Amino acid sequence: MDLTTLTAREIRDKVAQGGVTARAVAEAHLARIQAEDGKIHAFLHVMQAEALAAADAVDAKRKAGARLGPLAGVPVAIKDNLCTKGVPTTCASKILEGWRPPYDATVVERLKAADAVLIGKTNLDEFAMGSSTENSAYGPTKNPHDLTRTPGGSSGGSAAAVAAGFAPLALGSDTGGSIRQPAALCGVVGMKPTYGAVSRYGLIAFASSLDQVGPFARNVEDAWELMKVISGPRDPRDQTSFEMGWKREDVKGLRIGLPKEYLGAGLDPACAAAVDRARKACEVLGMKAVEVSLPNTAQGIPTYYLVATVEAASNLARYDATHFGLRKGDAAHTRGAGFGAEVKRRIALGTFASSAGYTDAYYVKALKVRRLILQDFDAAFGACDLVLCPPVPAPAFKIGEKASDPVQMYLSDVFTVTANLAGIPGLALPCGKTASGLPLGVQLLGPAQRDARVLAVAQALEGAL
Predict the structure, then answer these.
(1) Which of 33, 185, 301, 369 is most enclosed, with most CB atoms within 10 A?
(2) Which sequence spans correspond to the domains of the chain?
(3) Closest Cα to residue 398, out of 145, 184, 178, 160?
(4) What are the CA-CA distances from residue 411 to residues 227, 344, 414, 439 (Å)?
């Protein structure tokens, strides 16, 4: 039996029943990482000793007859912008090279409490700024389906790790599509929860009003199980967090909205066909498709890149050669040596947009458009219960194809940034492949705090597809 092909739920059940040991599961996944990650580069740090110790602890609990957690023995990969106590956390940046946090992120604490086995820290675009995982200071991650193509970003390492069978589950962060876009390009499930549903404590900040931690999995049921673990009760260390309800909804009779602005010119025909396949499957399941409008969709990218960069410029000011991380003389030399080109670009954009004389013209105006985007979704959800749309404009692109054109790279997130601006949940679901074998996906967007509805429809759709 190849333990790396099992779902998270299968692993948990087999470990709980004594059919397999947690150590055997961990060893199988570590062996696969050692054999194959050299060509994919999903991981920045493999937690071999820690993973085996955690697996042994799970086996000891089972042997003692103690109650096991909901993810007992399940390997989980962690995006390297989530703090892990005593384990390197770099954000794929030279400026944090060698830093070992003295504490765990809340989601890491909850995984450990659930008896999950943390198997490694995954690659990302530096400080989560990118759409291809090419901006990592430690080299790009490659798409397991085609090593000449990107896995998407910024959580490309986590998406690739799940797609390659290195772990059945992974965590990523989504600031403008950084879970959903790589999930779609790698053919796995990826979810951005409602803003506040998962604590951000211990997530190294990019844009605080947009960032959200979420799951990757090979199927919706596993993503749902991981969501229930990492959401949990409200975290007093994150004042935006709240406790989410997870009651399953009946999907029959739901209205599925198809936004006309997402399905026009510029969408690859294969991606459009995937959405149409999903629409037909929804109708077979007893749902009704209706057309909706999200008129400010075209303003999503410019709005996002003003709001996000202003917040990034503020958040990254703490890397000043004084407190922690890289030190190269004074702050200016440290930041010059430690940050990569894309991070510097976004700091410059954010500093300009929030500087005296320009704040009203750019940042304040962007906040007003952000409100209009939220109102668009409010109006759409008056006419439908869920939105069905593409997560990406095209399948996975070649490594290097957009690296020299930041605007084209930014447009990779045209269908995902609006959910972050509105704070609503979104999920990317596999939906077939292109003729050349590249994954295709669809995206489901729901009203705020209706994450369970998004997951219920995704699970029904997954079965139908």
Answers:
(1) 185
(2) 3-231
(3) 145
(4) 28, 19, 5, 19
Cα-Cα end-to-end distance for the chain: 27
Query: Pairing between strand 255-259 and 386-389?
Result: parallel
CA 393 to chain centre: 18
Token digits of residue 295: 């008129």
Let me know if 154 is a catalytic residue. yes
**Which one is catalytic: 132, 136, 178, 412?**
178
Check 154, 158, 173, 354 and give the catalytic one.
154
Spot the catalytic one: 61, 79, 142, 192.
Answer: 79
DSSP line for 445-459 = E--TT-HHHHHHHHH
Give the C-alpha separation, 102 to 82, whole Å. 12
Q: What DSSP string runs through 255-316?
A: EEEEEGGGSSTTS-HHHHHHHHHHHHHHHHTT-EEEEE--TTGGGHHHHHHHHHHHHHHHHG
Decide the pairing of beta strands 43-46 and 426-433: unpaired
| Length, in residues, of the chain | 465
CATH match of 3-231 with 1.10.10.10: no
pLDDT means over runs of 10, the chain (465 residues): 96 97 98 98 98 98 98 98 98 94 98 98 98 98 98 98 98 98 98 98 98 98 98 96 92 97 92 98 98 97 98 92 71 77 96 93 97 98 98 98 92 96 98 97 98 98 96
| Phi/psi of residue 433, nearest 5 degrees | -140, 160
Q: Which residue has the tokens 């946090």?
A: 101
User: Could you confirm whether 79 is annotated as catalytic?
Assistant: yes
9 is written with which tokens? 């739920």
Q: Report how far apart, in Å, the C-alpha atoms of 15 and of each of 63, 133, 167 are.
A: 11, 34, 16
Q: If you search the block for the tokens 């504490």, which residue do you land on? A: 103
